[in-house]
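Case 461 in the screening queue. Each case pairs one protein sequence with one candidate compound; here the compound is F0G. For every case the pipeline is the same: read the inputs, emit a complex structure as tokens, and attach any notable structural observations.

Predict complex for case 461.
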Amino acid sequence: MKKNTILPEPYKIKVVEPVRLIPKEAREKAMKEAGYNTFLLKSQDVYLDLLTDSGTNAMSDAQWGKLMVGDEAYAGSKSFYCLEDAVKEVYGYKYVVPTHQGRGAEHIISRCLIKPGDYIPGNMYFTTTRLHQELAGGTFVDVINDEAYDPQSEFLFKGNADLKKLDKLVKEVGAKKISYITVGAPVNMAGGQPVSIKNLKKVSQYCRARDIRVVLDAARAIENAYFIKTREPGYASKSVKEILLQMCSCTDACTMSAKKDAYANIGGFLAMNDAGLYEEAKNLCVVYEGLHTYGGLAGRDMEALAQGLKEAVEKDEWVAHRIDQVRYLWQSLDDLGVPLMRPAGGHAVFVDAKAFLSHLDHELLPAQSLAAAIYVESGVRTMERGIVSAGRDPQTGKNRKPALELVRITLPRRVYTQTHLDYVAEHIGLLYKNRKQAKGLEFVYEPKYLRFFQARFKPAK
Ligand code: F0G
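Case 461 output:
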């Protein structure tokens, strides 16, 4: 993609929300008060909020319309049946259990399927997913292919699982000790890198032969389907909708954070083909989320979600434009020499913080420091995805040291314009020129679970 590429949006703007850029001194103060953690900033102090694409999407006029027809019945809401139909149509699973968001689904499936002492392989960890597996007494085992750990590798399907690693685990512990395998597609923590359909089929074949369930983390599976269409031989003429159904047919169930692909601001679900698992999940839903026909969601949210899901696959232009926006920002930063996770991925551009701040030791938290510096420089909020996010090993209590130390610049769907992207690239480019000025950070407060959300830091001495 050339730098001057124009990306015409497949939508026009009907409602606007003002944003403001506060002065640099105020940004310095705000960052200090937030303990150098971008999660603790107030959004009113943020100019462009690229923390996450989760729940931050712009809904369509049709989705807003659906809010008015939400059925708020406690039991048997017609909005639930509407959501159930949409999930069956788009993903192809037989049964659907709604949840308040993705981690609600992760909690339930972990409780249903993991016995203490079990192992759960997956193509790289995700923070909430792994924690729920551990809380259920399981141990996560990473079976992603090695290319995923090399920011420089241009491999097009860095999210692929490595069958040899999976087989090694199965041989070591026995298939009975494996609750299921989680396949994230694309892989959030690996730079939004996709999984090929060829790899999914192999995983599926391998697991079905051994009676191991395959669970898809479907948060951004529509984006993965688009990568298959554009990168994998033989899929160019298929629609994203068709490819997504093929992907799901390689799996037995999915957990879904509907705050991503479905353009919704809240919501999630668990879907599966196995009636026994459905019974148990439906029952646990009542305990933790709410009745199985609302799962912690308002009727209007289920309506907006169902509409969003249908829209997301109705024409490929939506997802194409989104991926193009990510690639445009990626290319703009690459042109400025900023070290990036390669190639451009799905939902975000990931800056290689280790290379950007190569003068900082890993213990000085380069990605956390860079995310703070980006905010002070530009008012743009990004997120650490490195040693802080990785947390501590529950057995040893020591910091996990992930190979990837990244800052994620995440693009919400249909929210920001190309000019905003130019602003981001320009300011991160400026920061890169002055990178040696950045100092590291150290912890002053570390919560027990998912520490990256609430930890506080101070400049290292
Ligand atoms: N799986 C993936 C791949 C995710 O990216 C997330 C959330 C979840 C599961 C959990 O879903 O937030 O609805 O409970 N990711 C957000 C992010 C938080 O910013 O990447 P949730």
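Case 461 observations:
- Residues 61-315 form a domain with the Aspartate Aminotransferase; domain 2 fold (CATH 3.40.640.10).
- The longest strand covers residues 95-99.
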